[in-house]
Amino acid sequence: MTRPQDKTILVVDDEPNVRTYLKTLLEDAGFKVVIAGDGVEALEIIRKSKPDFISLDLIMPRKSGQKLLFELRRDRELSRIPVLIVTAHARDDLGAEDLTDLLRNRVISGPGSYLEKPIDPVTYVRSIQSALGIEVSEEAVNRLGLKEELRKSLEDASPEALRKALEALRKAGG
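The chain above was modelled as a monomer; its predicted structure follows.
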């Protein structure tokens, strides 16, 4: 049986906070994760140590996700790496044409070949698990959902509410 800890995911995104967020989601699901800030850096990483899966932003400086993906697909060995496009530009002037081009030329295809930002964390992790043939445990899904709910609650919480939550967590943990 394939296990997440046996798989390495390359997350490619030019936004540091998005890279960190996606990396955290995948590490919480048990994957090994490597990150890159653009297509040039990603290609260097891929050539040194081929990942099992690539989570790829579409619009980036230096080398876009589209250009990287076309380059990977021309390489016999690298063309087999599954890729999930994760983009905020599927429907706007910046990325819609690139995404349509990738789909039309079957560089990526089918449901689950791309997700639009902001992504749902459970859908994101499940998409990668499914592509890699990893059984999805309900425990892992529940954990991701709870973490996301907690993260959203923390964003809107007052300092006093945060102190109370921290106290409660300390008591529960120890």
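The longest strand covers residues 8-12.
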